[in-house]
Amino acid sequence: MRLDKMLSNLGYGTRSEIKKMCRQGMVTVNGQEVKKPDHHIDPDQDQVCLNGQAVRYREYIYLMMNKPAGCVSATYDKYDQTVIDLIDPEYLAFEPFPVGRLDKDTEGLLVITNDGQLSHRVLSPKKHVPKIYYAEIDHEVLARDIEAFSKGVYIGDDYTTKPAKLEVIKSFEAEDGAIHSEIYVTISEGKFHQVKRMFEAVGKSVLYLKRIQMGGLKLDESLGLGEYRELTEEEIDLLEKKDI
């Protein structure tokens, strides 16, 4: 790989800026100054330093974000803040994108990467990677709702969902006097507004929704809303786990 291509891909500047850095003796490869920006290197073997600081090369980035409500799962939006707007500039050079979508008003686990193949594997309907959500429902969730979800429910547009696992955490009397329920629901697909539409199909509404797990990857609860961190290699592998 060309030296200037590697450094520009990592966000250290434009090709012309990196060319100037090389001429000023700011770039070394294996301890030797390199004046020519088109110098070829092996990113996995050669040690590149800029101003004496080692440059870490990698092809892909993998981030876990605790998505806040009011933020859209997109790389660009004309009207609303996106999840990419929350990310530090050092990652933007990789041109990251969210793996799938969470509704604007939904919180929780969102993976952001530039690895298109991983994204495809996780989202592919053929892979059946499960996703777990926590939700608060405006009515009491009953045994018949659990049974309906286990068989799949019709959500309109000539579509019946795949079977889903619905678990009641607790039911309680809300301030308005109605009985609400806190639940977990596990689905293996990602139709538009799917969880909300499934509850609407059984006569209930979702008041709050948060994704807490994708595959075997659980949301790091130490992350505040809008915060993120890099995934470990073990966590990347967990993302595609089907048996949870």
Automatic annotation (TrEMBL):
Belongs to the pseudouridine synthase RsuA family. The keyword Transmembrane does not apply. InterPro entries: PsdUridine_s_RsuA/RluB/E/F_cat, PsdUridine_synth_cat_dom_sf, PsdUridine_synth_RsuA/RluA, PsdUridine_synth_RsuA/RluB/E/F, PsdUridine_synth_RsuA/RluB_CS, RsuA_PseudoU_synthase, S4_RNA-bd, S4_RNA-bd_sf. This is Pseudouridine synthase. It comes from Peptostreptococcus stomatis DSM 17678. SUPFAM superfamilies: Alpha-L RNA-binding motif (SSF55174), Pseudouridine synthase (SSF55120). Residues 1-59 form the RNA-binding S4 domain. One of its GO terms (biological process) is enzyme-directed rRNA pseudouridine synthesis. Its EC number is 5.4.99.-. GO terms for molecular function: RNA binding; rRNA pseudouridine synthase activity. Keywords: Isomerase, RNA-binding. GO terms for cellular component: cytosol. Coiled coil: none annotated.
